[in-house]
Known about the structure:
Chain A is mainly beta and 113 residues long. Chain A has strands at 5-7, 10-14, 19-24, 31-37, 44-49, 55-58, 61-65, 71-76, 85-92, 101-103, 107-112.
Amino acid sequence: TQLLEQSPQFLSIQEGENLTVYCNSSSVFSSLQWYRQEPGEGPVLLVTVVTGGEVKKLKRLTFQFGDARKDSSLHITAAQPGDTGLYLCAGARGSGNTGKLIFGQGTTLQVKP
Amino acid sequence: DAGITQSPRHKVTETGTPVTLRCHQTENHRYMYWYRQDPGHGLRLIHYSYGVKDTDKGEVSDGYSVSRSKTEDFLLTLESATSSQTSVYFCAIKMTGTAGEQYFGPGTRLTVT
C-alpha cells in the first residue's frame, strides 16, 4: 500500500520554467521531509515541515505543508540544470520517536539547458 | 555529512548465497535504518534499530535479518539471496531530537543472479 502518492512521476522542462511537485496522502503525518537524490548517491535532506500550513523557502524552492498535514508541495521557480534529480517526499507518522518514514515513489526532474 | 559509510558499494552474488551488508557511522547516533530502493517504489524500510541489540521490522522485512552489536555498526543479512532482492540498499541515521529527518549513506548496489 502506497500511503504517499507523488505526482508527476517524471518531469522534463526547459531551463527557466517553473514547476510544482505534489505529495498526497489520506493519512496525517506528524512531519514531512523532502529529499533530493542524484544518480549513484543517497538522498539528501532538503527541508522538514511540521506545522499544518507551514511554508518554507530554500532559495528558489518553496515547500508547503497542507493545513491538515496530509499533503505537501514543492515549487521550483526558474528551474536550472543543477536542479535535475530525483525528488522524494517522506512522511513520519505518530507521536513516537522511532523516526520511521513512509516515502513517496519519487519525481524524476530533468531540466534542459 | 553524518559520517555514514556502507560496504561493499557493489556486489554481485548468486541465488541462494548468504550476503551481509555493513553500515558504519562515526557519530554515535542511536537510530539506524536499512532501506531498499527500487524503480517506482521510492524507498521502503526493511529494518531499523533504536539501540545496541534493539531492532524492529519495517514494511519489507521478509528474507532479511539485522544485527547491531555496537552503536556504530548496523548489519543487514540476506540469509539466502533471491533475484527479487536485487536492489540498491541504503542505510540511514536519525539525529536525536529531530522531527524524523534522516541522513543517508551512499548505498550498496546488490545484484543477485
